[in-house]
Amino acid sequence: MQALFEPLTILIAEDSAADRMLLSTIVRRQGHEVLTAANGAEAVKAFRQQRPQLVLMDAMMPVMDGFEAARQIKVLAGETLVPIIFLTSLTESEALARCLEAGGDDFLAKPYNQVILGAKIKAMDRLRRLQATVLQQRDQIAKHHEYLLNEQRVAKAVFDKVAHSGCLSAPNIRYLQSPYALFNGDLLLAAFTPAGDMHVLLGDFTGHGLPAAVGAMPLAEVFYGMTAKGYGLSETLREMNAKLKRILPVDMFCCATMLCLSFQRRSVEVWNGGMPDGYLHSIASGERTPLTARHLPLGVLSPQSFVDRTEVFPMAVGDRVFLLSDGVIDTCDANEQLFGVERLQQVFAANRQPDELFEEIEQALRDFRGEARDDVSMVEVSLLEAAQLSPPAPVYSDSGQSCPLDWSVSFEFRAATLKRFNPLPYLLQLLLEVHGLRAQSGALYSVLAELYSNALEHGVLGLDSALKRDASGFTRYYQQRNTRLDALQDGFVRVHLQVTPKGEGGCLIVRVEDSGKGFDVARVMEQPVDGVRLSGRGLSLIRQLGRNASWSDDGRSARVEFFWEALA
Amino acid sequence: MPVVTEVSQDGQKLTISVKGRFDFAKHQEFRESYENLSPKPESFEVDLKDATYLDSSALGMLLLLRDHAGGENAEITLTNANADVRKILAISNFEQIFDVA
Fold first, then answer.
1. What is the pLDDT of residue A1?
2. Residue A318 in domain
3. Looking at chain B from residue 30 to 49, which residues have their Cβ under 8 Å from any Cβ of chain A?
4. Together in a domain, A345 and A275
């Protein structure tokens, strides 16, 4: 399609006045504006002043010849294409080639042929426009790219505020992530629970770029919100799945591994949906237990079909959990071979200094591929002594003027509720309305959690804590817990809370009863209060953290007190 | 053609064969292979015999097909996957919602 005729300004550089006149007449008759110059120097000057769009240039001229003038005009024109057509009586091919080498775009042999001259001007004009379009589009793309980068910077800054509000800087966490991992869909979150446990999530959304990043924000909000309120993995995962299922398009989902590291119980609870195997590294035995994906990714199943079943593994102080994104094992070499799990395990096997594992994996990926990928995420969380970590004190914004100080409440949670509902966050929230208890919220939550899980697991479900003596029994214990909970028909856990003012301070009495068979209180109480054995840790913890812990009704009823003094 | 379709004689079953890398580049073709079929087939087979690789956007495409075919009631079989592809289906636990044969 021919664009509407647009007259050009054409510079004619020709030392012969007669030829100049002739050419000017032809070109004007074709509808263009004409500028003239009698030698190369004049031509350059005219170009500098009036920027013609096309030049007809005689090769042989006094003062400055056409070759030099062409070179200078091309430099002045920069990226803009100013076509130069050489006018020449030269016929040797070498001389004609020189015209093009000097920057000429075409040549026209003397004597001039009107038709050919007109056609050449048109052809050169097309080229000129094409070049202008290309430049314009290039600049547009560059501008869009700059906008995009800026948008990503802003999105990332906002997201970092949310994502890094957790405890990724805790001394037991090491991680490696590209600064723009968010735009590869990779997501790493960590936060302390009110009981001082640590929740960690490594996620990987489908796709790349902004679409991969949009789901990260709601996921992080649920993660931090529910972790801070004391919800466990199952409830948090259910909520994340439901939220993602609701907001994401069908073909988008998030592979994720979520951990709950309990420093007091020395165990890790794991849920893996669609992520590569993570590994639990036992330092004492050197063994690496794979943490395999048992579930579909988040955001695939409906809330009704979602499976929140977790696995629990015992850990010793110093043991590490290692998680990685598929960027590691899916790294391809030049022949499209995958790095794969076997090569990763070779790196594990060759590793001598646990602290150098990340670097060794990165090095292995570089050796394999020749360059680093930008979507490799790794995180390693180690189990420390509970005392080595200091979870941040929760921040409360209310004034305390309406703090309740004299009340009691009783709950009975029955079988159908026990199966799926975790009452602890509600109980804790209720109790933390009492300002005097806030300073010991961690201990309070830990004790409540232990009392509740004792009542549920040993009482209602009749599980034997002696099973947890060794690692394999530990796993069996949690398998049985899941099976029995699924099959549960009746039974109850009752929780009674009583808050009474005492002078300037006050007292909380917690009583938890269950429908189970009870236990031999005297025999269990004889055991020393320690924190080393895997089994029975719950009771030690309750006795250490609460006051006047006692059991009655053959162990079916537990009672613990908490006191507080006047608030400063 | 990297995505080839075949409808059974009675029109009840659609077989979609994917060749080469099954990734975002096949998005359009894969979608078009099952949309706008009338009557809508009862069951679907995705033949992965010649699929060399499958990435997470391909998993997303399978979810779209599942949604189209009736969500939780969809009848979809994934057949002839090679070892690499099988591994990806296993890690993502897609075996729980697709019949992998």
1. 46
2. yes
3. none
4. yes
Tell me: do A119 and A257 sit in the same domain: no
* Domain CATH code at residue A517: 3.30.565.10
A377 and A414 share a domain?
Answer: no
* pLDDT tens for each residue of B63-100: 999 999 998 889 999 999 998 899 889 999 999 999 99
Give pLDDT, residue A363.
86
Nearest CB to A250 within list B63, B91, B96:
B63
Specify if A558 maps to a domain: yes
Contacts of A204 in chain B (CB under 8 A): 56
* Residue ranges of chain A whose pLDDT lies below 50: 1, 531-534
Q: What is the ipTM of this complex?
A: 0.89
Q: Cα A193–A195–A198 angle (5° rounding)? A: 40
Residue B46 sits in a domain whose CATH number is 3.30.750.24
Distance CA A47, CA A74 (A): 10
* Predicted pLDDT at A82: 95
Look at residue A534 in the predicted model and tell me its pLDDT. 47
Q: Which of A251, A296, A338 sits opposite B97 (nearest CB)?
A: A296
Residue A542 confidence (pLDDT) = 83
Domain that holds residue A289: 164-388
CATH code of the domain containing A310? 3.60.40.10
Q: A339 with A446, same domain?
A: no
Give me the pLDDT at residue A532, please. 47
For an interface test with B, give the residue of A251, A255, A323, A333 to mutate (most B CBs within 10 A): A251
Residue B1 is predicted with a pLDDT of 66
Q: Are B57 and A255 in contact (CB < 8 Å)?
A: no
Same-domain check for residues A204 and A101: no
In degrees, to the nearest 5, what angle opens at C-alpha A536 toward C-alphas A532 and A541? 75
* Chain A residues within 8 A of B24 when measuring between CB atoms: 207
Q: Is B73 in the A-facing interface, judged by CB distances under 8 Å?
A: no
CA-nearest of A321, A323, A318 to A383 is A318
Q: Residue A367 carries which side chain, given as an amino acid letter?
A: D
Examine residue A1 and state whether it is found in any structural domain, yes or no.
Answer: no
Spatial CA neighbour of A104 closest among A126, A74, A78: A74
User: A188 and A130, same structural domain?
Assistant: no
pLDDT tens-digit series, residues A160-169: 777 777 888 8
- Residues in chain B with CB shorter than 8 Å from the CB of A275 are 91
Q: Please report whether residue A169 resides in a domain.
A: yes
Record: contact A336-B64, CB cut-off 8 A: no
Smallest CA-to-CA distance from A294 within B96, B16, B58 is with B96
Is residue A377 a contact partner of residue A186, using CB atoms and an 8 Å limit? yes
Contacts of B73 in chain A (CB under 8 A): none
Give the nearest partner residue to B96 out of A255, A275, A296, using CB atoms. Answer: A296
Contact A296 B94 (CB under 8 A): yes
Share of chain B above pLDDT 90, in %: 57
Phi first, then psi, for residue A439 (nearest 5°) are -65, -25
pLDDT of residue A179: 72
List the single residue in A with minimal CA-CA distance to B63: A251
Per CB-CB distance under 8 Å, the chain A contacts of B61 are 251
Is the preceding peptide bond at B39 cis, omega within 30 degrees of 0? yes
- Nearest residue, CB atoms, B93 vs list A204, A296, A305: A296
How many domains does chain A contain in total? 3
Question: What pLDDT sits at residue A531?
Answer: 47
- Phi, psi torsion values for A199, nearest 5 degrees: -100, 135
